[in-house]
Amino acid sequence: MTTDPRPQQSTASAVAAQRLQDAMKRLRARLRAESGQNATGLTPTQIAVLGRIIRQGPLTAARLAALEHVSAQAIAQSLAVLKTAGLIHTAPDPQDGRKKLVSADASATELLDRLLTGRSDFLVRAIDEVIAPDERADVEKAIEILERLADADPRGGGI
Predict the structure, then answer these.
(1) Fewest Cβ atoms nearer than 10 Å: which of 18, 49, 61, 155?
(2) Residue 86 carries which DSSP code?
């Protein structure tokens, strides 16, 4: 009687996938807390939208929604919060006065820089305190594997 190893591999992969999801969720939450993001009152989505505006603005809300892969309504809600906080401004589009261009306030760049620095500082401290020198190569390998997972397209068959 032959046994097919795939069911066991699938179970092992499912367990690994769940552990990875749990670890990433905990790390994301820790990074938000350590960076001070929780204290801003902004959601991760609003921070992501703000980052996109900083990197690619000025741009229309429709373009922003397309780039973020969300609905126009979701973008409108995020933009309303960011505008109330004084982190973004809108101005008429010089090419089409019916449209408004969204741009970031200087305070938005300062906020995002502070959050990113807080995340990096935490990770540097954590690596220095928790990862032994002989484990550094393991961390590098784990990063490479995570990058490959992030780039994977299992539906397209190209892992």
Answers:
(1) 155
(2) T
